[in-house]
Amino acid sequence: MKYIEGFRDADAARFLHDKLAATGEELAREGRTVRVMEVCGSHTMAIARFGVRGMLPDTVSLLSGPGCPVCVTDAAYIDAAIELAEREIIIATFGDMMRVPGSRETLAQLRAAGAEVEVCYSPEGALVLARNNPEREVVFLGIGFETTTAPVVSLVHTAQAQGVRNLSVLTAFKLVPPALDALIADVEVQIDAFLCPAHVSAIIGSEAYRPIVEQHSIPCAVAGFEPLDILYGVQVLAEMLAQDKPALVNHYARVVRPEGNLAAKTLIDAYLEPVDAGWRGLGELPRSGLGLRERWSAYDAAKRFSVSTRGGSFDPRCRCGDVLKGKIIPPQCPIFGKVCTPDNPVGACMVSSEGSCAAYYRYSRTD
Amino acid sequence: MCLAIPMKLIELNDLGGGTAQLEGARYEVNLSLVEGAEVGDYLIVHAGFAIETLDQEEADARLELFGKMAEAYREEGTRGESA
Ligand code: SF4
Predict the structure, then answer these.
(1) Ligand 1, residues A324, A336, A344, A360: which to mutate, most atoms within 8 A of Cβ?
(2) Can you tell me whether residue B35 is helix, strand or coil?
């Protein structure tokens, strides 16, 4: 696997570290910080797994933002899924959702009590379930950012084309750019630059971040998932800060095009429209999600079965909201690693392997 | 959910999908979101769907750049030692 090794070369990492240290120091002398936020769960995981934070000089910090789709899923959404399962509807979901705490319980607990909750590797699994159970209703839990939205919409498209009528989607799709806007607007959050997601950008295109650079003068770099991709991205961002030249750069051109994946964008636009959405920890953000257009409401589980995905409550001890905004790092949560562990998660950030708390827990203990 | 490493497309099927391979394991992949994917292409796969094909030239250019950085570091290192 020569291909992978080249993206993990230790000497290239040392080269980037030295450059970054020089730039960081230069900025520190002027009293300026290099606080880079990454907004992608797979970046969070890669950073923890490869120990990227340990490769950064003290003057540079890498914060994890709201990039894990499971982590930003509202408790009320889980409550709605549970309500559907209690009505004998078959729930099909990505495995990560099973242990996300709702207001009272999780889907895993419900399944243990006999409800039909099926884990799918791909949304296509839900189509198979619907075909195999023609007398039953099947609801797929449609969560995720732009990357996941495209496959789920493709499921609706296929169901519609093939006349499958017992399948619908409980939507809670989220958009990355509005979340970045909300973080910029939050005076308590201080971010100097964004390391933009890799595969979300494959769908929406690198140009989607142009307004952030132009309106807020915050440098943005799209980067891949390999350790050198991440380090280089951070180094380039620091350089832009030092030169006071905020720009948008695409350092993942091997996958991301400026305009994104047009086939996926066209499909998404045909079925979905922007809606206000509730984010765990960030609250309700205007036009930050996607919902099915009126025309396709037969596939909209919330409408079809009249359930609400709003409201809901979560454990007041959980500081997920502050973690997702980069205000604290997971070990600063008083119950991190003690009461809240991956085996017994109190908050959503400890559930998915992409969650900041889970990533910190897993990799800071094996060091 | 998101597999960060590209998978190699090794077979196309009649239904517009294909089989991709990663470290010896095979995966069924839906190809409806990528136009014109061919056997031998590397795919970025998410939730069972290919969302992009890898641009090999861009990948090679990046590897070359990182290779140069590693070389530059090693040269600096040897100079530092002999000084
Ligand atoms: S450690 Fe657990 S309780 Fe604390 S913020 Fe993270 S998920 Fe929430």
Answers:
(1) A336
(2) coil
**What's the CA gap between A198 and A206, in Å, rounded?**
9
Residue A361 CA: nearest ligand 1 atom is 1
pTM for this entry: 0.90
Please name the amino acid found at residue B12. Answer: L
CATH 2.30.30.140 matches B5-82 = yes
- The size of the A-B interface in CB pairs under 8 A is 116
SS3 A355: coil
pLDDT per residue as tens digits for the range B26-42? 999 999 999 889 999 99
Rounded to the nearest 5°, which phi and psi values hold at A62? -115, 120
Rounded CA Rg of chain B: 18
Residue B66 has pLDDT above 70, yes or no: yes
Among candidates A254, A195, A192, which has minimal Cα distance to A223? A195
Record the tokens describing residue A81, joined without a space. 């899924």
ipTM: 0.87
Alpha carbon distance, N-terminus to C-terminus of chain A:
25
Ligand 1 pocket mutation pick from A327, A357, A362, A365 by most atoms within 8 angstroms of CB: A357
Residues with CB under 6 A from ligand 1: A 317-320, 323, 330, 333, 335-336, 340, 346-347, 349-350, 357
Compute the distance between CA of residue A241 and CA of residue A32 in angstroms, rounded to an integer: 9
Q: How far is the CA of A178 from the centre of ligand 1 (A)?
A: 24
Three-class DSSP category at A208: helix
> Looking only at Cα atoms, what is the longest distance across chain B?
65
Q: What are the backbone angles phi and psi of residue A66, rounded to the nearest 5°? A: -80, 60
**To the nearest whole angstrom, how far is the Cα of A187 from the nearest Cα of chain B?**
32
